[in-house]
């Protein structure tokens, strides 16, 4: 009889242990909110990580999160400007209706190095210092790679945004019609492709005009010649057709032309008088 009772108690204990393991290993859903420890205001975009799996989520703008975990999991709570904590999930007695947890974080202060603040001077002085400054590559690997790739880095960047680029840029001739007939027909017949080509052309022309304007304009001519008002307008009308400026022209080349034609302009003005 005693042996029978002992056997029954052993089976009950074994069943209790197994059910406890099942509860521990079962997946449960929890929800909660991350709050400031003093003001109790929500902390948005805090990170919740399950230490066991290293997986997690990011809270919403109100600091609320929903997460699937196992009983007795430990969560790592972190947010910018707050101390990280390891939070042990309390035992959930009713997985079908878990409580809404509130997790509080404390502020953290970062000790920054001393910073010297000084004036940069005038805008012209800043530009001069900036142009003269040298960018030193601290990583020798990057420096070596840059030198090795320099001969191949000859392609100019495309100034046209991707959404306005045609599928095939440039002219498509007879060879394109033979070897890529589908692309050729699409390029010629598609309204969207025609529209993209027109927009691309406008963008490129505007870019060229801006580059030329930055090298040859009324302010630059006035600084070089000292002319003002109507006299400046007359000289620009006189020299405009003679001075050749492209987006690739150097400032020295443009200035040389301005001064050359300015001397011509003064000589002709004296002759007329």
Automatic annotation (TrEMBL):
Signal sequence coordinates: 1-19
Keywords: Signal
Protein name per UniProt: Carboxypeptidase-like regulatory domain-containing protein
Source organism of this protein record: Labilibaculum antarcticum
């Amino acid at each position: 009889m005693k042996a029978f009772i002992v056997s029954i108690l052993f089976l009950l204990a074994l069943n209790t242990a197994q059910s406890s393991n099942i509860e521990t290993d079962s997946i449960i859903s929890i929800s909660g909110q991350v709050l400031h420890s003093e003001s109790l205001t929500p902390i948005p975009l805090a990170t919740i990580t399950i230490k066991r799996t290293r997986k997690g989520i990011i809270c919403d703008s109100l600091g609320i999160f929903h997460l699937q975990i196992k009983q007795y999991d430990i969560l790592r709570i972190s947010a910018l400007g707050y101390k990280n904590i390891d939070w042990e999930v309390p035992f959930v007695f009713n997985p079908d209706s878990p409580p809404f947890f509130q997790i509080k974080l404390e502020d953290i202060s970062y000790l920054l190095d001393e910073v010297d603040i000084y004036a940069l001077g005038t805008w012209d002085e800043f530009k001069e210092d900036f142009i003269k400054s040298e960018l030193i590559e601290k990583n020798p690997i990057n420096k070596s790679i840059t030198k090795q790739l320099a001969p191949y880095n000859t392609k100019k960047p495309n100034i046209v945004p991707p959404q306005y680029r045609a599928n095939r840029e440039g002219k498509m001739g007879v060879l394109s019609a033979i070897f890529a007939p589908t692309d050729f027909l699409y390029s010629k017949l598609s309204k969207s492709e025609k529209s993209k080509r027109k927009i691309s052309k406008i963008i490129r022309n505007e870019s060229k005009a801006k580059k030329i304007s930055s090298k040859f304009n009324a302010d630059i001519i006035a600084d070089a010649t000292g002319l003002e008002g109507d006299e400046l307008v007359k000289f620009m009308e006189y020299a405009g057709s003679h001075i050749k400026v492209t987006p690739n022209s150097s400032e020295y080349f443009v200035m040389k032309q301005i001064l050359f034609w300015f001397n011509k302009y003064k000589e002709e003005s004296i002759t007329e008088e």
